[in-house]
Specification:
Blueprint (H helix, E strand, L loop, with lengths): L2 H10 L13 E4 L2 E6 L5 E4 L2 H10 L4 E4 L2 E9 L7 H17 L4
Antiparallel strand pairs: 1-2, 2-3, 3-5, 4-5
Helix pairs in contact: 1-3
């Protein structure tokens, strides 16, 4: 399964979340983007600084980059995580909950 298929599949399993964007697929809530696929076809999810640091180690991943810039709060969802749908659904929901806790834009 490619990145877009994985992304659309997990979003479909999260009734609170709607995919947006035609050329750059993303999700946003409360005025904050919290997941997207970059131009390199990589998937990133946004978390608080503390959770981001924990997940960098737990999932042996890296900070998420887009257009050669590090995206604040985002981690790279590695290809080897794509087969764990339940994990990805949990992470996407956690990311949604995080942006809902932020001040609305």
């Amino acid at each position: 399964m490619n990145t877009l298929e994985v992304y659309e599949n997990i979003i479909a399993l999260c009734p609170r979340i709607e995919r947006k964007g035609k050329t750059v697929p993303y999700t946003s809530a409360n005025g904050h983007m919290f997941s997207f696929i970059n131009k390199d076809n990589e998937l990133g999810f946004r978390f608080s600084k503390e959770v981001q640091e924990k997940y960098l180690t737990k999932f042996d991943t890296s900070l998420f980059k887009s257009h050669n810039s590090i995206m604040k709060g985002y981690i790279l969802i590695k290809d080897d995580m794509y087969n764990n749908t339940n994990l990805l659904v949990d992470l996407l929901n956690e990311s949604y909950d995080y942006v809902m806790s932020l001040k609305s834009k």
